[in-house]
Structures are given as C-alpha cells and as structure tokens.
Amino acid sequence: MVSGARQVGKTYTIRKVLTDQQIPHFEVDLSGKPDILKALKTINGAKEIVNRLRLYSPTQLPEKGGVIFFDNVQEFPEIITKIKFLVEEGSLRYILAGSYLDAELKKISSVPVGYYNEIKMFPMNFLEFIKAYGVSDTVIDSLRQSYEKKEKVDPVIHEKMLELFTYYLLTGGLPRVVSAFLETHNLSKINNETKKIISLYRADFLEREALDKKYRLTAIYNSIPAQLSKKNLRFTFTSLDKELKFDRYEKSFRWLEDSGVTYPCYRVKEIESPLISSMAKNFFKLFMNDAGMLVSSFPFSLREKILSSVNDKNLYYGSLFQNFVMQELVSNGQEPCYYKDQIIGEIDFVVEKDDGIWAFAVKSGSDYKKHRSIDKLMKQKKNEVRGCFALSPNNLFVEGNVIHLPIYMAGFVNNRGDKAMVVPRISF
Predict the structure, then answer these.
(1) 226/419 Cα distance (integer angstroms)
(2) Cβ–Cβ < 8 Å for 128, 373
(3) Cα-flanking dihedrals φ and ψ of residue 221, to 5°?
(4) Are residues 55 and 165 in the same domain?
(5) I want to staple 349 with a disulfide (CB 3.0 to 4.6 A). Which of 186, 187, 309, 360 is the partner?
(6) Which of 169, 122, 187, 234 is nearest to 407 (CA)?
C-alpha cells in the first residue's frame, strides 16, 4: 500500500514501475469505476471478487502473478479489510494507493495487520530535485563524501547547490510543479501549478468538513503561513478562536498530520532518550509538507526577491528555511521535535538518531557562527547530546561539537548511526 498526500506522485510511480517491468496488471480507479466499486461493496467471497475483476480487466491476466492496482483507495477504505482474503486466495497480487490513507485507516474497524506493507511517499526532497534538474551522480557523490568526511564542499559545486536550493524553495518538490519549472522556468506558471494543488487540498478539506462538522481543517491550513511569519513559530490556537481550547481542534490537527499534508514539530520538555517520553502534544510548530506551497502564499515581490538572492550567503527567511529542514528530515525517516527552556533558550530541532540525540540550529549567513542556545545545550546536556548541526548557506566546517552544514545538506542527515548494532547469537 502506497500512501501520501495528494500530488506526490503515487499513481505515476506505480504505473511506471508496472509498465517498465512489463508486469500484467489492471488499474482500478475507485473514484471513477462505479460498477466495480458496487461489486466490491456487495460481493464478499474472495474468489468471486477475483473472477469479477478478471472480467472487467481490458487485458487477460495470467492465472498466477498478475497485479490489480487499486487507486484512490480513500474512496472505499473497506477494500483494505478485504485484502486479507484476496491475498489468501493467492492468484493475484495487489497494489493499493490513495491520499490521506493514514487518516482514513483510523476509521476502519479491522485492519489486516501482516497482510500488507505500507510505503509512504513524500514530495521530492532536494536530492531528488537536483537529480531531476540533471545534476550528475558524480557531483552528488562528491557532496555525500564531503558530508561523511566532514570536509569543505568544492567552492564551485557549493555555489551551484545554493543556486539550486533557491530554485527548490520556489518550486518545492511536488512533481507537477517541478515539471512546470523544468519546462518553463517561469515563476508565474510555477505559482499557478502550486495554487491548483492547494485548491485540490482545500476542496478535500471542505468535503471532510461537510461529513463531520467537528473538523476545522481549512481554518488551520489557511493559518499556517501567518503562524510561521511570527518571530515565535509555535502555533497559537487563539489565532483561530479567542476562546479556543486545544482539545476542540485536536481531531483536525491529527487528521492533517496523519494525511501527510502538514508536519507538526512537537516540543519536548527534556533532552533525554527517548524524546517521545517528554513530548508535549499541545505545543508545536506546524509546517507545510512542501516549501513551494509555503512560498506560494508570499507576495510575488518576495518570491522575486528570493529568486534574486541566488548565492547570497546572507539570505535568510527563518520560517521558510525551517520548513525546508523539517520536510527534509521527515522524508528521511526522522521525527523532529524542538526544545525550549528559560536557561538554554530554543533549539530549532532535536532528533533522536540511532547513535543518539542531535540538535539543529537553522542560521542565516550573517550570524552563522552565533549559536548560543546549542552552546548552552552542549554545556549543560553534554552527556545526553551526541552533537549539533548548524545549517546555513555557508560551506561545511566543524567547530568543536558543532558541525556547520550547508543548508542544502539537511537531507544527508539520516537515521543511521556510524556503527551497526549486531545482535549476539544465543547458544543452547
């Protein structure tokens, strides 16, 4: 089962893999096949369902090994319950895809655990973006080596990566928008494509709000750019309703998170493992799942300013930089939190990797060496914190326990530690 927010490329990717591998398959769009949908709802026997699917297929599927690709599963989530019996029947294999599936799965009374694997898709990250742009594997390998050895990036490559980073802020990673950028390099067309996708998101929100009056998805989503424009990025509930209590909107926040549309960064009260043990779910910064979506809310003049800031090491748009770092970490399997107290101050992100807890500071070019909060953190929590990353438009260098990374390298920080953990064999 492939899940993810709208327009991240689920359907295209599945079709391409099936076609390139020449796998016999039948695609069933559950939003546009009312006759098949009716059959799935009324027929219970696995063998009968399989026979009906074979009947509807425009091409003959083999007795063994053919694939049924159910798309837009959110239109009929109960198909996930039937998958157990279809898998056990054994003659066909199944791929399921849809938007907002993690949110919709919570409505299903019986999820067949062990009968499917879930793959989550995200918008293209920066590395995927520069590959689409045509950056060679040789250049990407050199960046990876610089990160692993903690050595300065070749200055020419560094300047080019900053230029591409600026482009990525403007386009984001939604494939449809990236395609428009690669084809036209026209800022207006890029913005138009992004606006169309946002309109699809909002239409989905309104549909769910009509089904359940307790949802406030549109109000929350529309408020994110304003929330992130504040000096304190923490989400302020009173901006939605002066009398608001968190529990009134909690269901909506959880739906947006589960659907992959937003990425909440929760506050932790303690820097100790596991971080989740001190996580405060009612204190968080709320980011969009794509930097380009956030930029589309900016005035056109500001977007032109970002474009003209290519290679400007003093470039800094706090919320936009943090949104970028958040989406890079999330797409790489991380669960970023943030930390704040009166003595240390605020740590932009803290992440628990396999080799320990790491702190992140997102900096501008002009003050990239100033990181008082992480200096205090390392002094007071040196036994709990493995190290710190300071992300800015500057080149890579190491200063004590702080690794200064170019901002575009946020995605190189993966969840694996430097050492593999080997489980000892037990003898009897």
Answers:
(1) 42
(2) no
(3) -60, -45
(4) no
(5) 360
(6) 169
